[in-house]
Design a protein that fits this description.
Blueprint: H1 3-16, E1 29-34, E2 37-43, H2 52-60, E3 68-71, H3 85-92, E4 96-99, H4 111-118, E5 122-125, H5 129-135, H6 137-145, E6 149-157, E7 161-163, H7 175-187, E8 190-194, H8 195-201, H9 216-224, E9 228-232, H10 243-246, E10 250-254, H11 261-266, E11 270-273, E12 276-277, E13 280-281, H12 283-292, E14 297-300, H13 304-312, E15 318-324, E16 333-334, E17 349-357, E18 360-367
Parallel strand pairs: 3-4, 4-5, 6-14, 6-15, 8-9, 8-14, 9-10, 10-11
Antiparallel strand pairs: 1-2, 1-3, 7-16, 12-13, 15-18, 17-18
Helix pairs in contact: 3-4
The chain binds the ligand Nc1nc(O)c(N)c(N[C@@H]2O[C@H](COP(=O)(O)O)[C@@H](O)[C@H]2O)n1 and zinc ion.
Catalytic activity: 2,5-diamino-6-hydroxy-4-(5-phosphoribosylamino)-pyrimidine + H2O + H(+) = 5-amino-6-(5-phospho-D-ribosylamino)uracil + NH4(+); 5-amino-6-(5-phospho-D-ribitylamino)uracil + NADP(+) = 5-amino-6-(5-phospho-D-ribosylamino)uracil + NADPH + H(+)
Pathway: Cofactor biosynthesis; riboflavin biosynthesis; 5-amino-6-(D-ribitylamino)uracil from GTP: step 2/4; Cofactor biosynthesis; riboflavin biosynthesis; 5-amino-6-(D-ribitylamino)uracil from GTP: step 3/4
GO molecular function: 5-amino-6-(5-phosphoribosylamino)uracil reductase activity; diaminohydroxyphosphoribosylaminopyrimidine deaminase activity
Length: 370
């Protein structure tokens, strides 16, 4: 591995520390090196706080002059919540900047690199770009398409069942898989569910710090940036005294009359009117609204009907399937409500990862285009 790759790999490792706290901002890491030695490191912790480059420059101090800065995202050129990092790199006298990828934020989009070049700094782009894109898939999709990255989590038996006919579904998978799901929740901007799940499972869909299995620093960070919990309840069937509402402020997406807004507000929740038909919220419009509120990644934890609707409408970017080594039998409920008549209609997936998680298995699969 070249020195450039090694430094960018370290910058990506730093960026990943922001997995649970940076949203709506991207996860970014920075390494500053001079004469083959790392002299500064930094990562973006939270929106409103200094960017990765600023932390690394502070650590490098005077040693930044003539050094190379490795950043996982193009340095910003705009005045957002913080001043432009490109200017800070120029002022520090950095000689070379290596980035993994351009910033898809239209306020930056190449302007940061252009500013560095104008100042006589040598710039190169594209080092470990694929890894950087994967880390910020949600931020990139929101910037480029005005939609969040949608990850659907499903837990099933080896025979593809998610709950007994009675609705009983706890616990299909073991504690390691449940901790992995906790981390998925913590890294999401939004955790989204439907009325069926909230009513049948008494689900709360909260992040529980003691179940995350993270070190103290990341656990504390995750607690400062919990995901917004969103309930899709087209006909307002879920009463306000269920555990889901009692677990904290909720955004309820509905196509029912907004007359109930005050009742939800009084209980500390927000009612969002979303167009829809036959009591079904328009999922694409809801996702666009969530992106408008800064949601990079949405985790869907729902039953077969809502998860099936996301699949049918082609709104899923990634499935995470937790598979327990047991059979639930033929009267148990299927994974997705996805009525398909012919093999030609089958939804093709590309499996990108299969990994043991305790006694269970995690399969990460991506929908394949038409
Ligand atoms: N290069 C870079 N490093 C970081 O550490 C960052 N957080 C970003 N973010 C870019 O700047 C925008 C946010 O700016 P403010 O935090 O509001 O000042 C964000 O949308 C990215 O474009 N970039
Ligand atoms: Zn910046």
């Amino acid at each position: 591995m070249s020195f450039d790759h090694a430094c960018m790999a370290r910058a990506l490792e730093l960026a990943r520390k922001g997995r649970y706290s940076t949203h709506p901002n991207p996860r970014v890491g920075c390494v500053i090196a001079r004469d083959g030695q790392v002299v500064g490191e930094g990562w973006h912790v939270r929106a409103g706080e200094p960017h990765a480059e600023v932390h690394a420059l502070r650590q490098a101090g005077a040693q930044a002059r003539g050094a190379t800065a490795y950043v996982t995202l193009e340095p910003c050129s705009h005045h957002g919540r913080t001043p432009p990092c490109a200017d800070a790199l120029v002022a520090a006298g950095v000689a070379r900047v290596v980035v993994a990828m351009q910033d898809p934020n239209p306020q930056v989009a190449g302007n940061g690199l252009a500013r560095l070049v104008q100042a006589g700094i040598e710039v190169s782009s594209g080092v470990l770009e694929a890894e950087a894109r994967t880390l910020n898939a949600g931020f990139i999709k929101r910037m480029e398409q005005g939609l969040p990255f949608v990850r659907v989590k499903l837990a099933m038996s080896l025979d593809g069942r998610t709950a007994m006919a009675s609705g009983e579904s706890q616990w299909i998978t073991g504690p390691a898989a449940r901790a992995a799901v906790q981390r998925l929740r913590a890294s999401a901007s939004v955790v989204l569910s439907g009325a069926d799940t909230v009513l049948a499972d008494h689900a709360r869909l909260t992040v529980r710090p003691d179940e995350l299995g993270l070190d103290a620093e990341l656990t504390a960070l995750a607690a400062t940036r919990p995901p917004l919990r969103v309930l899709i309840d087209g006909r307002l069937r879920v009463p306000l005294d269920v555990p889901f509402f009692q677990a904290g402020a909720t955004l309820v997406a509905t196509c029912a009359a907004a007359m109930a807004r005050e009742r939800y507000l009084d209980a500390g929740h927000e009612l969002l009117a979303v167009p829809g038909s036959s009591g079904h919220v328009d999922l694409h419009k809801l996702l666009a609204e969530l992106a408008g509120r800064g949601a990079n990644e949405v985790l869907v934890e729902a039953g077969p009907r809502l998860a099936g609707a996301f699949a049918r409408e082609g709104l899923v970017d990634e499935y995470q399937l937790f598979v327990a080594p047991k059979f639930l039998g033929s009267s148990a409920r299927p994974l997705l409500d996805l009525p398909l008549a012919r093999m030609a209609e089958a939804q093709a997936l590309k499996i990108v990862e299969i990994r043991a998680v305790g006694d269970d298995w995690r399969i990460i699969a991506l929908p394949q285009g038409e």
